[in-house]
Fold this sequence. Notes:
Blueprint: H1 23-39, E1 42-53, E2 58-59, E3 66-68, E4 73-84, E5 89-100, E6 105-115, E7 120-123, H2 126-132, E8 145-149, H3 161-167, E9 175-176, E10 181-182, E11 191-195, E12 198-205, E13 209-217, E14 224-231, E15 234-246, E16 249-263, E17 266-282, E18 299-302, E19 307-310, E20 319-320, H4 321-329, H5 336-360
Parallel strand pairs: 8-18
Antiparallel strand pairs: 1-4, 1-17, 2-3, 4-5, 5-6, 6-7, 7-8, 9-10, 11-12, 12-13, 13-14, 14-15, 15-16, 16-17, 18-19, 19-20
Amino acid sequence: MLRSSVCFLFVLLAGSACIADDHNLVNDVFEEWNKRAASWQTLLLRTRFEQFIAANSIPDMDDGILKYPLKDTSFTGTIEYQFDLKGHRYRRKGSQHIFNASTKSFDAEVYVSLFDGTNFQVFNPKQENIDWGNSRSQSEYWIELTLFHEKRAPFFSSLDSPVFYAIGLVPARGFDMKKGQVTPPDLSKAVARRTKDILMIEFPIGKRSVIDERYEIDPTTLLVKSMRKYVSGMEGYSLEIEYKERDGKFFPFFWVEREYEFKDEHRRLMKETKVSTIEAVVDGPMILPFSVTPTPGMNVLDVSTDVEYRVPDPGKPLETLGEIFAREEHAPRPIGWITLAFWSAIGCAAFLGLYIFLKIRGV
């Protein structure tokens, strides 16, 4: 949510810095994004995607060598977005496959990332995960709800970027979720220039690499139509977006994200995801909740206290999962592995993103 996976591959304009030739254009783009965010009321977007993951594209967490999957692998999945732009409330539901570092295989996961304007939650509905084929969710100790409170939860990934470009909320370092605004970058460290409708930003990474980001921007709407990242002349990432217009507002209806590895001047496709919009409701009613209320019998992890517990029936005392396990199994046993099984997949996704991020930069 990425789920979690927060993706390290995508250095957005808000995370870049620039000076010189066309910094006014960069400011104009950010100003237009904030205007666009202010003009939206709500958006409900349902999408489906096809994903290809190349063999030997995921590193082993022990030695860092690219080993998994053992053969080229393909998946399908869905992502559903709901945004209340005036109330700064966001909801993202994903049904996809995440690599599990423990089992060296992919787990089917259904998760809902939620922000109600104040607090973050991640909801892993038990029955939906069972129906999706996640065998681990059948455990009576499955963590169904994680409470992050005001600490930011894993929420956006690079795959979400076209949605946020359209509504003006770029998911980067400059995006304040509570205010729903994008802060322009620090114009001090890199060089920006413009060639026709292409905005190019260059900045060095250490002594070995130069990052060259190229944004194709519509001259009328200032929407980002495509983005490509080059490291010392080699393309390491690409994103291509097609938009549709409805009632004067734009939303993405098709986009393709590609990630590459390159070594010794050779480039290899590591991952490709094609996303299609199947339903879009612009400025309609909000039909889905932005938070989940814990109910009796639900297993909950409170990140602020690092306590896993089961919500008790009214009038009953609260018990941690460790206490329940010891009582029901008649043997003390740490229960931390329950949460570890789920978050190891998230951790592996983050590790993979960082690994490719460094490879792309030639580190």
